[in-house]
Every structure is written in C-alpha cells, then in structure tokens.
Amino acid sequence: MTTSLATEFSAPVSQQASWVERGKKVLMSTYATQPVVLSEGQGSYVCDVDGKEYLDFASGIAVSSLGHCHPGYVEALTAQLQKLSHCSNLYYNQPSIELAEVLVANSAFDRAFFCNSGAEAIEGALKLARKYAGKTRGHGCTTILTMSNSFHGRTYGALSATAQTKYQTGYHPLVPDFITVEFNNIDSVLATNLDTVAAIIIEPVQGEGGVHPVDGTFIKQLRALCDEHQIVLIFDEIQCGVGRSGSFFACENFGIAPDIVAMAKGLGGGFPIGAILAVEKVASAFSPGDHGSTFGGNPLATSAALACVNVIQTEQFLSAVKDKSALLIATLMELQGKYPCIKAIRGLGLMLGVELDIPVKPIIQKCAAAGLLLVGAGDYVIRLLPPLTVSEEEIAAAVKILEQALAAPQ
To answer: Quick one: CA dihedral 267, 297, 112, 125, positive or negative?
Structure first.
C-alpha cells in the first residue's frame, strides 16, 4: 500500500484537540477551562494526552499537597480500596476515627465532622454557628458577618457569605442575614449590631480575593470581640490550611484559634474531602439528625486525608515548606526588580500572589504554553500554589518560565 508524502509526513493529529471538542459537547460551561487535557502526573509534574509535560504550580487549586502519585498516598488509598470504600454514617469506620483523632490531637479543637468539599464544610459551619447561637443567645441571633472581597464557595449559603458580586449575579435572592464588613477594619465590625451576630467568618488568607493575608492585629481584635459577645468565630482555611501557610493550621501564624475551622482542598491531597473542626461547646449544639453527608467520612476519603496529614503535620515537613516559601519569595522579589509591572508579592507559605499592573490571563497562557501551570486570582493577580513537596530546582525552573512570559511582548 502506497502513501503520499503529504500523508506520510503530516503532523500527528492532536488527541488533546479531539478530547477538548468532546468535552465541550457534553460538559456544562461553568468553567473558563484551558484547552489542556491532563492525563497523568508524578511529583510536581503533569502530562497532557499528547505527552507534553508541565510543571504544576496550580496543584488543582491548592489541592495536590503531596504532589501527584505520592507513594505513601497511593499505597494508603489502594490498601483501603481493597478493604472497604463506603459504609455510610450509620456505622463507624476506622480511618475516619483515626483522622479525627489526629486532627483533634494536633489542634485547639475537640470534634470533627467530615463531608465532601470546601463548600459543604462552609455550609456545615454556618449551620452549626446558627444552631449554637440560637441555643445560647436566642433565635433572633442569626446575622453572619463576612469580609469584603471574600470567597467561601458556590452553594447557596457559601455564596451568600461570599462578598464578591461577580459570583452572586443571577442567583438572588440569596440566603438572608449576611452582612459584609471591611476586611482588616475593626471599626467596620463594631459598626454592626453585635447583639444579633451569630458568627463572623473570615479567611486568614483570602485566595480568590487576590491572596491577601489578614492583619495580625485585626484578627486578634476579632477574637477578643467574639469572646466578649459570645460570637462564633469561623475560619475558612479551605485553601490556606493543611500546611500551605507553613503551619498546619493557618491560624497558628497569628497565635489564636477560631471556634470552628472549615478545611478541604489539601486535606485530601486530591481525593474529595471536607472537614469541620470545632471546640466542644460549639460542637455540642449539633444533635443526631441536625446535619449529615452520605459520603462524608467514608473510608477512602479519610484514608487519603490521613496519609496526607501524617506527612504534612511533622515539624520537619512544615519547616521545609517555610524554607521553600522564603526561597520562592526571594526569587520573585528579584524578578520584581527587573519587571516594573510587578506591583506586589504577598501571601503565606506556598500560597503566594504576584500582583501585576497588566491583566494576568495572557501571562498565565504563555506560561502554560511553555510548560508551567498557574492560576489567577482576579484580573491582576497570579497565584503560585505548588505542591508542598516542590523542590528548590523546580522553584527555579518555574520562576524562569514566568520571567520569560513577562519578558515577551505583551
């Protein structure tokens, strides 16, 4: 059989393009998805279906805390899958008890509730706070104070707590009794009627809002105010928790603890899991039947999370995260000296934001084309969220690609 030269030497058809078109036909258009179809990963790298390799500094938006296919993580999930994957909360299971024990033993909290995602964790935290407030301060105490520029999720309660109108447009009426106060401004909080406030919810580091860490003085004032008025203080550590800040809980960086903390993302290292941790007096407001989640705390999810937590919680691991954070910040600051378009570098640990005076979308696209995956935080901020296991060499390689993108004509 003969073939023409045109056929013989034509470029291979991209599997990626075919998969993208298939996806567009059947998936709902809820994401601004890049035309990249990832198929496998190892450590800090992922590959697409055409075999192109990328350095992953998005980590599935701060999810892949141990990188991809971490041996201990894979072993834990495989072993549990061969034993029991689901049993519901009609019965106890060993991995969920072990995970709760580890989280409680290494925190200021007393009890845990497991669910499937960050948004679910926020919903549960809001319900628990209102239930507690109703029992202790009366049923007229229903207001939730939320911070300007915050992001807490896309389900109705979480969306109502999200103080960014771009996410809320088209979904009104929202859940009532949410009031937005100004992030890092205690006077804005004091201007509300605190007698009706059930809870205050805050991200120690705002992620979607542009990677803004909370002011240390403000968060301590907030803690004192909540103590004085019996207000439940909720921390949303969905993105900044589980070692990403350089401490296991982001609140540890500020020397205080909330009454409730919502966790997810890096907790499962890629397997869907969310968690609420609470102090005993607040947790006891829930009674059987008050809240639930069919898949919450299933043996697979909690085995995955336990594998992550057992690695990340160690002093040696967290110290390494801080060292790598310092290196990444120093390297980015060198870049800032060369490129005036970089206005600011901020964040905690390996959750860093680079603010530019130009739109970041073209920069992120150029980096992807050159083999580096990044994620934005609004129109002018690039988020760097590498796996917590990232190496110094990988940090250098990522910053080099970013510099090439910044140096290219815009």
So the answer is: positive
> Above pLDDT 70, what percent of the chain?
97
- 47, 389 Cβ separation under 8 angstroms: no
Domain 5-63+315-407 bears CATH identifier 1.10.10.10: no
Query: What's the pLDDT tens digit per position in 53-105?
Result: 999 999 999 999 999 999 999 999 999 999 999 999 999 999 999 999 999 99
Four-point Cα dihedral 27, 31, 32, 38, nearest 10: -70
Calpha distance 178→172 (Å, rounded): 13
Q: Which residues are CB-contacts of 259 (< 8 A; sequence separation ≥ 6)? A: 129, 226, 232, 233, 234, 278, 279, 281, 282
Q: Is the peptide bond before 340 cis (omega within 30 degrees of 0)?
A: no
Per the CB < 8 A criterion, the answer to whether 172 and 205 are in contact is no
Q: Where in the chain is the domain with CATH 3.90.1150.10?
A: 5-63+315-407
315-338 vs 392-407: helix crossing angle, rounded to 10: 20
Cα-Cα-Cα-Cα dihedral sign, residues 196, 131, 209, 242:
positive
Give the tokens for residue 40: 């496998």
Largest CA distance in the chain: 86
**244/24 Cα distance (integer angstroms):** 33
**Start-end ranges of CATH 3.40.640.10 in the chain?**
72-312
Overall residue count recorded for the chain in this entry:
410
78-113: b (≥16 Cβ within 10 Å) or e: eebeeeeeeeebeeebebbebbbebbeeebebebbb
Q: What are the strands of the beta sheet with 197-202, ordered from one edge? A: 111-115, 274-278, 260-263, 232-236, 197-202, 143-147, 178-181
Q: What is the pLDDT of residues 259-314, one digit of tens each?
A: 999 999 999 999 999 999 999 999 999 999 999 999 999 999 999 999 999 999 99
DSSP 241: T
Task: Name 24's bridge partners.
Answer: none
**Angular region, 254: left φ>0, alpha ψ -120 to 50, beta rest:** alpha
> Domain 72-312: which CATH class?
alpha beta
Distance of alpha carbon 33 from alpha carbon 29, whole angstroms: 9
Structure tokens at 142: 């229903």
Alpha-carbon torsion (389, 394, 399, 404), positive or negative? negative
pLDDT digits (tens, 9 = 90+) for 110-161: 999 999 999 999 999 999 999 999 999 998 999 999 999 999 999 999 999 9
